[in-house]
Give the backbone structure.
Amino acid sequence: DAGITQSPRHKVTETGTPVTLRCHQTENHRYMYWYRQDPGHGLRLIHYSYGVKDTDKGEVSDGYSVSRSKTEDFLLTLESATSSQTSVYFCAIRAGVTGTQYFGPGTRLLVL
Amino acid sequence: GESVGLHLPTLSVQEGDNSIINCAYSNSASDYFIWYKQESGKGPQFIIDIRSNMDKRQGQRVTVLLNKTVKHLSLQIAATQPGDSAVYFCAENAFNDMRFGAGTRLTVKP
């Protein structure tokens, strides 16, 4: 499992509330990623990080922000959750010379 | 088979048969490809990878074939077992930009 944990694993929230998802890794990987997974779509990149305090946007970054204050933690924040952000969110790390990505167990988020 | 971005197709096979899952990728600059397995309620799990300088790679009960001419990738699972039931999707990597297919749902009938 590449030493990746995500919390919470499930969350139900209301439209307009802020939500923070946490990704924690134990193996000191430099690159970390946040994806969302929706039916009929492949994983879509929200944001990624290439080091402490170094982050960049992915293809679906609107409405999301991230922070990485420590190597092991990468936080994803929905500033004001909307129903369109109902999804399953996966964190990943990049490892090895090939850049293979390994995924966490996911967080299932329902925005009512 | 699947293409990056299309609706999830399904494949049903009998236990013990071989399975072939296909993937059409889009970027001719992609130089690295991965197959992932995702079981219900879990995160994607790495199965096997292949670089663009190869056309075949074998693992334990799995083989990945790459045809760069037609931008096609396939995953072959030998002697498919009930535990192989999952969604399988491919990923292509070009300049550290990884793109994922939507996947194929494999169901194994006893």
Notes: Chain A touches chain B through 17 residues (CB under 8 Å). The radius of gyration of chain A is 13 Å. Residues 4-111 of chain A form a domain with the Immunoglobulin-like fold (CATH 2.60.40.10).
